[in-house]
Amino acid sequence: MEMQEFPQLTKVKELLIYTEPRTDFSLIGLISLLRASPNLQTFVLELMWFKPDRTRREWKEALESPLEHLKEVLVNGYHGCACEFELLAYIFRNSTALEKVTIDPQEKRDMPVPEYPHKMEERQAAERIAKHYAEKQLTEIAPERVNLFIL
Q: pTM for this one?
């Protein structure tokens, strides 16, 4: 999969991306956006998965490119899919100033959605599984200098 190149976004210091990924390759393009934002300090990724896809494919590594000013990352809606792991692995490898990463398996919804008891239980179970994936995947690769919080 080829990544699109973005123009340099030198004035961007905070970036909030709200996305509804449909496949396990959906987030790889964000790496180009991060590379095009050399002064980025805070990156927030709001995920609303249509159907999380935890395929058993090999991890892909993006080209190295320093993210010298990135200090904080927040990911809401983490499910442990390969593309989420690849994006965070890239951030861990390339962010020399990174101080804090917060992972929240719970999706943040702008509008309230009517919940039925069985749907609420399914969602809570999915969030527990996602938290397990985050702990298993990310604690192994997070640099010691980074405070990793998995909610």
A: 0.84
